[in-house]
Amino acid sequence: MKLATWNVNSIRQREGLVRAWVERAAPDVLLLQEIKCEAAQFPAEGFGALGYRAEVVGQKTYNGVAVLARIPFAVTARALPGEAEDAQARYVEIEAGGVTVAGLYLPNGNSGGETGFAYKLRWMDRLTARAQALLAEGRSLILAGDFNVCPAPEDAAPGAIDAADALVRPETRARFRRLIWLGLTDAVRALHPRDRVFTFWDYQAGAWPRDLGLRIDHVLVSAELAERLVTAAPDRAERDRAQPSDHVPVVVELE
């Protein structure tokens, strides 16, 4: 399986870029975040012409996640369990090729003050509970998407982020570690333990030309899948395109 995750920062604005990348990279499964549209506005027909079925969990103007796949899959969840009143479109879960794949767009946590940060932490707690339940069932599991977490100091370029930012606060990093400690492997760090690897560069302050990046898009895999890792890396070239997303795809291949 070749799987990729990409925060596209508006699929309608970047449909052409995403379609061109899909044709070049040919992933079996592509998880999209921040599509910023309802399901009816998602350009499913264009991707269908490339052989990809779309499953969309959309929301007007904000958030939104989707799955594009050229292999058969079944949808197992369209929302993260644990908070019935949560109306934000941030989670989709499928079964494909004997693997449970969850595509997620974790809350940023910087807007809304401490209330917004508390929502981020609750969401992470719910994600951990869901992953724990799936692993307890013996599932082969992939969690992939924009986690809005820099797990360690080396995941941010010096000067790229303030120490008080929700992406690096101790509570955030502690919850990410707790997720890993369920028995998951950070695919990129497993294959590139010491490399300078980023997946996001802000549009402001010359972040891209100065390489002031962050690593906040992750693919976490269960133990048996970690043994099958062949490649895991961001496709940096996409950040240098005309009118790009501020994130790039992260691509993982399993033998």
Report how far the terminal alpha carbons are from each other: 7 Å
CATH topology: Deoxyribonuclease I, Chain A
CATH H-tier superfamily: Endonuclease/exonuclease/phosphatase
Cα radius of gyration in angstroms: 17 Å
Protein described:
It is a single chain. The protein has one domain (2-254): Deoxyribonuclease I, Chain A, CATH 3.60.10. The chain has six helices and 14 strands. The chain has helices at 11-25, 44-48, 113-136, 170-180, 187-191, 223-226, and strands at 2-7, 29-33, 53-57, 65-69, 74-77, 91-96, 99-105, 140-146, 185-186, 200-201, 213-214, 217-221, 229-234, 250-254. The strands form three sheets. The protein has a six-stranded mixed sheet.
Write the layout of secondary structure elements.
Layout: E1 2-7, H1 11-25, E2 29-33, H2 44-48, E3 53-57, E4 65-69, E5 74-77, E6 91-96, E7 99-105, H3 113-136, E8 140-146, H4 170-180, E9 185-186, H5 187-191, E10 200-201, E11 213-214, E12 217-221, H6 223-226, E13 229-234, E14 250-254
Parallel strand pairs: 1-2, 7-8
Antiparallel strand pairs: 1-14, 2-4, 3-4, 5-6, 6-7, 8-12, 9-12, 10-11, 13-14
Helix pairs in contact: 3-4
